[in-house]
Design a protein that fits this description.
By secondary structure, this protein is an all-alpha fold. The protein contains three helices and no strands.
């Protein structure tokens, strides 16, 4: 299953990080050290964003979207009925699941039999010349030959 939400999460957050850290300044306004430090900060922020997005799996995304939907529904009901106080929905957290490590046994590849040499490919005959068509007009080149540029004295 491909994650489609990552592109929506990464682009705005990376753009926000670039704007907040000043990466959107003109290139002429940055010094060498400032540019290097800025590039490093943007890369660090992007790594943090990538780690956060990678940590969330499809089940976490599903739970987050359901929690948000229920919270939005409760806010709507609160707006329709202002006299009633509805409790907030706590976020659902899944426990950390430790998967056992699976050891794969070493598998030796089978020995292949010797293959005879491939015979040489015979030569390909030359392309024959195109015969002339009787009564066809002579073909003139579309672009005339360009004469050589003469030497300019004093530019040795």
């Amino acid at each position: 299953m491909h994650r489609t939400k990552a592109s929506r999460v990464l682009v705005p957050s990376a753009l926000t990080a670039a704007i907040l850290l000043g990466a959107a300044a003109p290139a002429s306004a940055l010094d060498g050290e400032k540019a290097a430090a800025l590039t490093e900060r943007v890369a660090t922020v992007q790594q943090q964003i990538d780690a956060r997005v990678a940590a969330a799996g499809p089940i976490d995304d599903l739970l987050a979207s359901l929690t948000k939907t229920i919270a939005d529904l409760l806010k709507t009901l609160q707006g329709l009925i202002p006299d009633i106080k509805l409790p907030e929905v706590p976020g659902v957290k899944l426990p950390d699941i430790k998967l056992p490590e699976v050891k794969i046994p070493d598998i030796k590849p089978p020995k292949l039999p010797n293959v005879p040499a491939i015979p040489a490919v015979p030569g390909v005959p030359a392309v024959p010349a195109v015969p002339t068509v009787p009564g066809a007009p002579a073909v003139t080149p579309a672009v005339p030959d360009i004469p050589d540029i003469p030497d300019i004295p004093g530019l040795g």
